[in-house]
Amino acid sequence: MVSARTTDETRTRALQALVTRGTLSPEQARAVEDALREAEGDGSSARWTEIVGFVGGGLVFAGAVALVAASWEDLDRLLRAGLLLVVAVLSGLGGIAAVSGRLLRREPVPDTRRRVGGTLFVLTAVTAAMALGVALEPDTLTAPALLGLVLAAAGYVAAPTAVGLLSCGAFSVWALWSAMEAVGLIENEMLPYGLATLALGLVWGALALWRRLPNQRTGLTVSAAFTLFGAQAPLFDGDRYALLAYALTTAVAVLYLAVYRWWRVWVLIVAGVVGITIAVPEAIWDWTDGAIGGALLLLVVGLVLLAASGLGILLHRGGPAADASRGPTGPTGGGLPAA
């Protein structure tokens, strides 16, 4: 980590060089240095204030959870659902207050308020889903999952954050599982759920790339996790669908590497390398009936990883320059990160 002293010294040398070349006068250089120091001080103070706020909020929430948990078993079902609903409503109101300028007047909000609002909206989605789940228990989990997904998506639109997008991903895969379980599609085998999860991952990838989500890399990470899991899910049913699992995993890996040619996002190349590194050793182990020993299998995994990494490097060097690519990591306006 670069120390503050090193940063100050580097900045001073750069300003002195500008003064020497005549680009700035000594007075202008001092004014620039003072302005930079003041801005850095304000930013540091705001960050620490935000950190303290998150820690304080977390402690309050943990204390409330511990207090309710101590008497949870003594409460009836409706009262439990009511308590969770109160938390959801309060969190939602807090999130709306944090980003009210963005919601009411379409004004950009500071990153600190956006992150606070996004976190509160995630809490709203989680507690509202839990409240509905407790109220309906033990009838179904599909409705709570869908409610959580809708609220998480609405919260992400209102205050885009990486945490909000991850919560959307979690609720989407939970809703998919609950819906398929409700109609009896995953009672005997995992293949249908695996294929559905793979398709869901592809949808996430399309949204992250073509809709240009503010948190594009996070969206692609969710996509990669879902597609690779979905491709591997047939293996949970034994050897019946082993060949299909290897083929799907390889196809997913090749797809990510191919897409990387047009969208220069590092998540794509990592997903491609991981997919190839998983699929090829699995196939070799299966096709040889486990005849190769552990040491040889380790060697194969290493060679495949090196080959996949080499392919990734070639793709990275062979494509268009990063600054001329078609795939920006997210909009630059409004202080929204590309994480």
UniProtKB/TrEMBL annotation:
Domain spans labelled DUF2157: 17-133
Source organism of this protein record: Thermobifida halotolerans
Biased composition (Gly residues): 330-339
InterPro entries: DUF2157
Top-level taxon: Bacteria
Keyword hit for Transmembrane: yes
Pfam families according to UniProt: DUF2157
Keywords recorded for this protein, A-Z: Membrane, Transmembrane, Transmembrane helix
Region (Disordered): 320-339
Protein name: DUF2157 domain-containing protein
Transmembrane segments: 51-72, 78-104, 116-135, 165-186, 192-210, 241-259, 266-285, 291-315
